[in-house]
Specification:
The chain has 111 residues and is an all-beta fold. The chain has a single domain, classed as Rieske [2Fe-2S] iron-sulphur domain (Rieske Iron-sulfur Protein). It contains no helices and eleven strands. It has strands spanning 12-17, 27-31, 34-41, 44-49, 63-65, 68-70, 77-79, 85-87, 97-98, 100-103, 106-110. Strand 10 (100-103) and strand 11 (106-110) form a beta hairpin. It is globular and about 40 Å long. Bound molecules: FE2/S2 (inorganic) cluster. FE2/S2 (inorganic) cluster binds at residues 52, 54-55, 57, 71, 73-74, 76.
C-alpha cells in the first residue's frame, strides 16, 4: 500500500484503511519513500520501519504471532508493544516506531 495524501496539520499521513490492519498480520506501506509496516496488537495500531534495526532485513517479510515479530534476516524477535528485542539478548536493537492515529476509519502515521 502507498499513502496518497499530503500530511495533515499535525504531520500525519493516511496510510491504510483501519479495517485493513489486523492483529497478527503485517501490512507493508510506503510513506514519503519510507517502507513501513503496520500491525494491530491488543486493539492498538503500531507503525514501524520495515528495516530491521539489526542489519536492515525486510520486516514486511517477517512473521508475526501474538505480538511478536520475527525478522527473516537472522531471526531476531521483537515485542510489538515495546519495540524491544526479545531474542537474542541485545538491548541496543529496538524497532523504529512512528506515531499513529486512527481517524474516520483511516490509519494515519507521522514519519
Ligand atoms: S536483519 Fe533482522 S535479525 Fe538480522
Amino acid at each position: 500500500m502507498q499513502a496518497q495524501e499530503l500530511p495533515d496539520a499535525d504531520g500525519f499521513v493516511a496510510a491504510a484503511p483501519a479495517d485493513a490492519i489486523r492483529t497478527d498480520q503485517i501490512t507493508a506501506v510506503e510513506i514519503a519513500g519510507r517502507p513501513l509496516i503496520l500491525t494491530r496488537c491488543q486493539g492498538r495500531v503500531y507503525a514501524f520501519s520495515a528495516r530491521c534495526p539489526h542489519a536492515a532485513g525486510d520486516l514486511s517479510q517477517g512473521t508475526l504471532y501474538r505480538g511478536r515479530i520475527d525478522c527473516p534476516g537472522h531471526g531476531y524477535r521483537f515485542d510489538v508493544a515495546t519495540g524491544r528485542v526479545l531474542w537474542p539478548a541485545d538491548e541496543i536493537c529496538r524497532l523504529k516506531q512512528y506515531p499513529v492515529k486512527e481517524e474516520d476509519g483511516v490509519i494515519k502515521v507521522k514519519v
